[in-house]
Amino acid sequence: MTDAELAAHLADFAGRLLLDVRASGMFPAKALGKAGDQTANQFLCHALRAQRPDDGLLSEEEKDNADRLSKGRVWIVDPVDGTREYGEERADWAVHVGLSVDGVATVGAVALPGLGVVLRSDRPQPLPPANQPLRMLVSRTRPAAEAVAVAERLGAELLPMGSAGAKAMAVVRGEADIYLHTGGQYEWDSCAPVAVAAAHGLFCARVDGSPLRYNQPDVYLPDLIICRPELADAVLSAARAEAA
């Protein structure tokens, strides 16, 4: 398999495992997220080490290994992005399998198991038309004040949604036009979504317009913008005005 085929296969299979874990009825709500995280993580990490033994690996659910910093190719995975939504049997959670090459999110797949969809960097589709009025994604539980203010500046409607991957893929799918996040994230929250979004022609950057860089010693990557390319200048200007 190519890297992209491997990413898609693993994200899809892990998503189906997670649905099976949830459907088993073996776990109370508070334990379901942990059980799902650990099950999917074991599968993804064992599979990647078997299929790409020379590559580095960074997972939210594994202890970080500094050996990855010496690698040009590093797989960055989030077994369950949106553990709360997964446990609540919602559809807005995701599985992320991304590959950083020399610090750039290059290959990725994001599974949305609740929707039966896997979006891939190697199978980009044309972007649907922009929404009128524009739609901007925010957290369904704790929308960032900066994002709400930027939406007001742009005249955009707010669309609350769960996980970072689900929000990013909503822009890819045309359900929304802008995803701006300033509330704190880590590399596994955005690597695969950014790879997929960029392959579909979307603008992806830090909120200050600088590039998103991966496989860094500090994996904290607190903010990002994913939006339609024709909106990039307006979104960056609004974000800068709010930060001033």
Automatic annotation (TrEMBL):
The keyword Magnesium applies. It comes from the Bacteria. Its cofactor is Mg(2+). Keywords: Magnesium, Metal-binding. One of its GO terms (biological process) is 3'-phosphoadenosine 5'-phosphosulfate metabolic process. Mg(2+) binds at E60, D78, D81, D189. It holds the Pfam family Inositol_P. InterPro entries: CysQ/Inositol_MonoPase, Inositol_monophosphatase-like. One of its GO terms (molecular function) is metal ion binding. This is 3'(2'),5'-bisphosphate nucleotidase. It comes from Rhizorhabdus histidinilytica.
